[in-house]
Specification:
mainly alpha, three-stranded antiparallel beta sheet, 3 strands
Length: 114
């Protein structure tokens, strides 16, 4: 295997692709989420972003319908969702990933009430 220690671009690409493949193989990834992974790579490699594509903690929690930051953080960790940084500044969560998580939470809630 090639020495990637001096090639941060390739390290980041490998990490994003590995996470994406794992989520696809585990059937945890919608097409929107896959596009989000590609967008995440583009954002992190280009160092620019569209503010409309990101949400902060409070907005993400509102979209999902929870009030506990701890619960929100746990949900994100369980689903491989993380805050994104551009130039070492946290810009938030990808909106489409949070929308997928909200959809999943609604479906689980519906299934548990049946």
């Amino acid at each position: 295997m090639a020495d990637l220690s001096k090639k941060p671009f390739l390290q980041q690409l490998r990490k994003i692709l590995s996470e994406g493949i794992q989520r696809i193989d585990n059937d945890e990834c919608s097409e929107e989420s896959a596009l989000g992974m590609v967008a995440r790579f583009n954002i992190e490699s280009d160092k620019h972003y569209d503010k409309k594509r990101f949400v902060n903690y409070d907005e993400a929690m509102r979209m999902i319908g929870i009030r506990s930051r701890g619960m929100f953080k746990k949900m994100c960790d369980e689903n491989g969702i993380r805050q994104h940084s551009v130039g070492n500044i946290k810009v938030g969560f990808l909106r489409n990933e949070i929308e997928d998580l909200a959809r999943q939470a609604r479906e689980e809630n519906r299934n548990s009430t049946k």
